Amino acid sequence: VANETGAFFFLINGPEIMSKLAGESESNLRKAFEEAEKNSPAIIFIDELDAIAPKREKTHGEVERRIVSQLLTLMDGLKQRSHVIVMAATNRPNSIDPALR
């Protein structure tokens, strides 16, 4: 898709963005979105979305809840600012937080 449109392509592999350090996963997401905005038009592709954005009511960890919230905030901000499209893939669509579907 990025090749056909001439857009900058930014790949986020869900499990790789996760960090053990508090706040670093969210920071990694912010950096990815900032990079895409700087290079817009751009496409952000999140592979294995279910690894970073599970249903908030079913997760036991605070990190996952914060990442879902950060992702929603970043995506809301894109509507007003730039030409960035976010696409994602998963093998488990029913496990993704409903706000991201």
Structural class: alpha/beta
Please give the CATH class: Alpha Beta
Order of helices and strands: HEHHEHE
Label the CATH architecture.
3-Layer(aba) Sandwich
Spatial sequence of strands, sheet with the most strands: 1-2-3
Largest sheet: 3 strands, parallel
Give a quick summary of the entry.
The chain has 101 residues and is an alpha/beta fold. The chain is 43% helix and 18% strand. The protein has a single domain (2-94), classed as Rossmann fold, CATH 3.40.50.
Textual characterization of the structure:
The protein is globular. Helix 3 (24-38) runs parallel beside helix 4. Helix 4 (62-81) links the parallel strand 2 (42-47) and strand 3. By secondary structure, the protein is an alpha/beta fold. The chain has helices at residues 2-5, 14-17, 24-38, 62-81, and strands spanning 8-13, 42-47, 84-89. It has a single domain, classed as P-loop containing nucleotide triphosphate hydrolases (Rossmann fold, 3-Layer(aba) Sandwich), CATH 3.40.50.300. The chain has a 3-stranded parallel beta sheet with strand order 1-2-3. Keywords: ATP-binding, Nucleotide-binding. Residues 1-101 form the ATPase AAA-type core domain.
List keywords for this structure.
4 helices, alpha/beta, globular, Rossmann fold, three-stranded parallel beta sheet
Layout of helices and strands:
Blueprint: H1 2-5, E1 8-13, H2 14-17, H3 24-38, E2 42-47, H4 62-81, E3 84-89
Parallel strand pairs: 1-2, 2-3
Helix pairs in contact: 3-4
Keywords: ATP-binding, Nucleotide-binding
InterPro entries: AAA_ATPase_domain (IPR050168), ATPase_AAA_core (IPR003959), P-loop_NTPase (IPR027417)
Protein name: ATPase AAA-type core domain-containing protein
